[in-house]
């Protein structure tokens, strides 16, 4: 039986962690700002290419930074 409280879906937790990762350093915050500016200007380039163009080191560096960040967080972290 469901109570009045509902748990957020797992994807919401993963998205929250990823957003925390992106906001944890000034260079990553700048990356988010650049993406938002591109979106607001009407740029509808595929997300992969926007990330590759705007994240220092591209998609492969984002992947590596994300894995390092997860490792530093320890246990209890959602791993993608």
Automatic annotation (TrEMBL):
Source organism, top-level taxon: Bacteria
Organism: Marinobacter iranensis
Organism ancestry: Bacteria, Pseudomonadati, Pseudomonadota, Gammaproteobacteria, Pseudomonadales
Protein name: Uncharacterized protein
